[in-house]
Amino acid sequence: MKTVIIEDEKPASRKLERMLSNFPDIELIAKIESVEEGIAWFSENEHPQLIFSDIVLGDGLSFDIFEKVPTKGFIIYTTAFDQYTLKAFKLNSIDYLLKPILEEDLSGAVEKFKSFIPSGDTIGSQDIKQLIRKEKSILSRVLVKIGYNLKIVQTHEISCFFSENKIVYLQTEDRIYPSDFTLDELVETLDEKKFFRVNRQFIINSDYIKNIHTSPYYKVELNFQPEEEITVSRDRVKDFKDWLVS
């Protein structure tokens, strides 16, 4: 099984290479360190059956590679951040390993890959989409950018997410941060017991509810929130009340 590693941190790349050497049927044919290098390599070479790819690279996200050069290979993403799970499973991912990678997790991911390959057959992208199990992963932390720095925000620190001018922001006790998510993606990945989308603009965290007004319409006050009023859409009121007591 021909394999490629996409990883910009040399120690992590070497460690993964050593771990893969324990699998005699895996042949490593290339190591790629950037989005630019990845686009060039996949444009010029036959694609491998299996790809191990970090997500956050020095010049962007590895998703950019496969959006520019679609691949028929399976991808196992390796990353320190779990906020990209939903997008990963939309791009031929069969597994998502959080760093530091454990031997048993890697072995499980490789075995999952093998289970998806019919004996002696090649497999196309449409087959991949049918075979991938889109396992829901609950988002526990969000990576945000502050100038030239990155910061990890735990979701339990977030009182709400809201959209403004086509950008989704998150509110904490200290400040507001922009994110790379859409509200639809967040609904799919947040803990539904804690977070609820009250309208088109807001997703709120039950831990930060300060007060709920019910007349003349449902309005929520959070301990920390932007200046905008947070109202519950009429068609969401029943679901909202059920969520509060679930």
Automatic annotation (TrEMBL):
Residues 142-246 form the HTH LytTR-type domain. Pfam families: LytTR (PF04397), Response_reg (PF00072). Keywords: DNA-binding, Phosphoprotein. The keyword Phosphoprotein applies. The keyword Phosphoprotein applies. InterPro entries: CheY-like_superfamily, LytR-like, LytTR_DNA-bd_dom, Sig_transdc_resp-reg_receiver. It comes from the Bacteria. One of its GO terms (molecular function) is DNA binding. Gene3D superfamilies: 3.40.50.2300, LytTr DNA-binding domain (2.40.50.1020). Coiled coil: none annotated. The modification 4-aspartylphosphate is found at D54. Residues 2-114 form the Response regulatory domain. This is DNA-binding response regulator.
